[in-house]
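[agent] plan:
  1. take the single chain provided in the ticket
  2. run structure prediction with default settings
  3. attach structure tokens to the ticket
  4. add a short note for the reviewer (M.T.)
[agent] executing step 1
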Amino acid sequence: MDIGALRGTQALRNNVLKWMSFCLGVLATIFAFYNLLYNDFAVLGILEVFFAVFCFHTYFYTRQHYGHLWQSLTLCVFLSLLVVIGTHFGDIKNLLFIWTCALPILYYLLLGKRYGLFFSFGIAIIQGITLLSKETLVPLNSVNSLLNLSFVYISIWAVSHSFENSRAEYGKRLENLALLDPLTGAGNRLAMTHYFEVELTHKNGLFMLMLDLDYFKKINDQYGHEVGDRVLIEVTSFFRQRLNKGYVFRIGGEEFAIFLPASDPQSAFEFADMLREQLATIDYQIDEHTINVTISIGVACYMPKQTLKNFIKRADDALYQAKQQGRNRVVTAYELNISQLFCDTDKAS
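[agent] step 2 finished; step 3 output follows
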């Protein structure tokens, strides 16, 4: 599975931002031309010129990069401001206020549920006050007209909110299916890759612990795979309870990986040794069986511009040494090669 597929929401919002920027840029240019030259509405026309420039800049930017939240917020605020100003100063017969009904859709698509709810409620209040403050509401001077306008807005708002809420929940479930190990709930290999390549923007001081349950095959052979699965669940819970920071990933049958960001060689070793010592003292009671497990751990520190594959290999090499030396022990990669120099330098700095 491609990591890019996990950016579904980000890609959706970027596409909406890109094409809405283009469409609104064209419309803003047309309206600016009309308001400046024919409608004698200079304030709105000048604002529309600035809005058009911003929209086209955002369009060309999002063709090459993912858009930022501030760009989406700026577009929504700017467009809302234009609609409110146009409604306040313009003739009600121009029907510019109708744009208000389209705004909730844009809010939810660009900003998500939380911002969408806030902006939709805010623009409803502001536009309501703006309309009621006008000297005349002709042709909206009847109760039926105002009720219909209100109900249309509320309906569009409700549909937008329900759609975004369902889309977000569905997307979260798909992401969990893609990223989580179904047995233990730990992250899987794809989650590990995503975390390393996407979420970890700063990798200085990053350490990896590669952990393997010693002689786990004997547990499966002696007690059955169902008991073995429950041991894996218990061990995963053990790791999580002792992690103040970092993530746990299950990358093999009984093999796990833990990332420790913003650490140092001594702290990473001490944490790994603490896990080893504490797990060895726990007896799990599973189906009237008392089961004790130990772990072997390999520790590696991140090297500049290192790929995840090489990072894993260095931690795996250290884990192999731990197994070769009798298991139930911790071996660090920076004791095995010249990466010691890099880690010591990081520690000193």
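[agent] step 4 note for reviewer: The domain at 189-348 is CATH 3.30.70.270 (Alpha-Beta Plaits).
[agent] ticket updated
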